[in-house]
Amino acid sequence: MTPLRVVVALCLIAPFVAMLWVSSYARVEPKFAGMPFFYWYQMLWVVVSTGLTMVAYRLFQRDQRARAKSARAASARKEGGDL
Question: The pTM is what?
Answer without folding.
Answer: 0.81
